[in-house]
Specification:
By secondary structure, the chain is mainly α. The protein has 16 helices and no strands.
């Protein structure tokens, strides 16, 4: 069988890797906690208000990303991602110039638009089109060494930028990274396979690709067919509730640990440990799902996430917080890293962008819900203590959903 690894596929994978480095997971999720610590004073408002705006941005992202995925199915990935990167960089720059809360609200809409267009939906589709037998491994590698590695260092980078140059300098630094590193390399490297590059615009009236059934990589169900399958909702709620617990905690972890008496440097170190776990989770889960070809591989990652997130919410001892944060990140890596993989194996690639856009939206909904609820809990009770019950219930639902998944429908060809 012809090798999936060649100059074109490796170049595309490198471009996807860069895209993940400068994407929303690294530039927003890994930095929001540091900005959340300083923006209330800078904008003369409360943490609840900032948390609410950030949550609304995530919910807006959830509403928009299925349409972005559908656009990628219709027009091609590059035609959506490249303008998205420019909008993303512009939004960060304008955030550095804001002065009042309504500026922050308006610019979060612009930032969310850019984040939606340059989300992992398009990058995951590129990998899925180039790779089948090694899809989990390559996707996990790109996410782990891209978004995961960037998430590990960006808490420290953003903390340094804010400490030395103020929050305005922090946003300007993020803008420079996205524009100067991300745009030129993604433009040069990210390409769909030639066989499918010209067929992206052939869709039926419902926005589902047609006329591609002869290409094995693009077999699958339509968006409407996916919505009639119970497995879609198991994946949807596993991702949504897992994100509520894990990503919601990630965005509050710095102020939460500061309020428990830890130093800023220690709190950002804990956050970096969590993102180091994300790298390990994304890479190892990708390798394992390719090898064993079953969704049950992901279940231990969600169990690790439950142990880790409860440790972060309840402990002050560094000897417990460091491994707890790592386990939380490990589980998050298994969840985020394999969301796209689960979609490709249960529903195929025919309408991958539209279907993955919906499960990606589930992550944004959960993230935003966890963010705002933890913020409300803190402001209404004076501490994050009750938050442990919220995240405990959410991660338990995720575990039950993953445990209920059946075997893959579109299994890797190596399994046949």
């Amino acid at each position: 069988m012809k090798s999936e690894f060649n100059r074109a596929s490796i170049s595309a994978a490198l471009g996807v890797w860069i895209g993940f480095i400068v994407g929303p997971n690294a530039m927003i999720a890994a930095t929001n906690s540091n900005f959340l610590n300083v923006l209330p004073d800078a904008l003369h408002t409360s943490r609840t208000n900032i948390s609410f705006v950030l949550a609304m941005a995530l919910w807006l992202n959830a509403a928009m990303v299925p349409f972005a995925g559908k656009a990628m199915d219709r027009f091609g990935v590059r035609q959506v991602i490249l303008p998205g990167i420019l909008i993303f960089a512009l939004a960060f720059f304008l955030l550095s110039r804001m002065g009042v809360l309504w500026h922050f609200v308006a610019l979060q809409v612009l930032l969310t638009t850019g984040a939606t267009l340059t989300s992992s939906v398009g990058y995951a589709k590129v990998i899925a089109m180039w790779f089948d037998r090694h899809r989990g491994f390559v996707l996990g590698l790109c996410v782990a060494l891209g978004a995961g590695a960037a998430q590990t260092v960006m808490p420290k980078v953003s903390s340094w930028l804010i400490t030395d140059h103020g929050w305005r300098g922090g946003y300007m630094g993020l803008s420079a990274i996205v524009l100067c590193l991300g745009f030129p390399l993604v433009y040069l490297l990210v390409r769909a396979p030639r066989a499918h590059a010209s067929s992206a615009a052939t869709l039926d009236a419902e926005g589902n690709p047609e006329g591609m059934e002869s290409a094995p990589e693009l077999l699958g169900v339509t968006r409407g067919q996916a919505l009639r399958q119970p497995v879609f909702y198991l994946v949807f709620f596993a991702i949504m509730c897992g994100s509520m617990a894990l990503l919601g905690t990630m965005q509050h972890v710095v102020p939460m640990l500061l309020e428990r008496g830890l130093a800023l440097g220690t709190a950002t170190t804990i956050m970096s440990c969590a993102f180091a776990g994300v790298v390990a989770g994304e890479f190892s889960s990708g390798f394992l799902v390719d090898r064993f070809n079953t969704p049950r591989v992901i279940l231990p990652y969600f169990v690790c996430a439950a142990i880790g997130v409860m440790t972060v919410h309840t402990q002050n001892d560094m000897f417990l917080l460091v491994p707890g944060a790592f386990l939380m990140g490990l589980g998050l890596g298994g969840e985020v890293g394999q969301n796209a993989y689960l979609v490709s194996r249960y529903f195929g690639l025919k309408a991958f962008g539209a279907i993955y856009g919906m499960t990606f939206a589930a992550s944004a909904v959960g993230n935003g819900t966890g963010l705002i609820l933890l913020g409300v809990i803190r402001d209404q009770t004076g501490s994050y203590e009750l938050g442990r019950y919220l995240v405990g219930a959410a991660i338990t639902i995720s575990i039950l959903c993953i445990a209920s998944l059946k075997p893959f429908v579109y299994a890797s060809r190596r399994a046949h």
